[in-house]
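Quick log. Single chain, no ligands specified.
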Amino acid sequence: MYHVKEAFYTLQGEGAQAGRASVFCRFSGCNLWSGREADRATAKCTFCDTDFIGTDGQNGGRFTTAADLAAHIRALWPRDASNAVPYVVFTGGEPLLQLDASLIDMLHDEGFEIAVETNGTLPPPPGIDWLCVSPKGNNALAVSGGSELKLVFPQVDAPPEQFKHLAFDHFFLQPMDVSPLGQQADTIASTTQYCMANPEWRLSLQMHKIAGFD
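-> predicted structure:
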């Protein structure tokens, strides 16, 4: 049984694949936070801004088999997009609590390229085409390499220097989404300055929030 908070067709808004047409499948649940505000202060990740509780989001639901969920995802990809490789991004919460080899195989059979955005604390199943790890605080990583490491910045207990030795193809710093707006501008400026001083890191802005798409 797969529990999906929401699934929708959009553009990837972050990282090296920013701007790419994608089906997003957000699984319910996370191993670092319950998703409830009452638990935030004691969570292993305290700054998440995503609703991943339940299955009541857009195209969300419970899917009994991998074939059921694969068909649901396939139906969200444009039927007339024959010149583009279908692309699905599994996210959460923490997608590796649910994503398995059966679902990956089903979607590969449908021609999909499979991306995952994970906090990196759980080992991934085989067959993932694009693995993005976003470390959260001082939680131990079970993944030491992949397609991209995308670090929300700043995190006092997760400085960029701690991760630069890992075997990722791309290293991104993404300004933490904070309020009020003036504070967000300061965070973007400090992230930009860090990337300029440490050019092995690239700046990742959340394009979907800037451009106004989901």
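The beta strands are 2-11, 21-27, 61-63, 87-91, 113-118, 130-133, 145-153, 167-175, 202-203.
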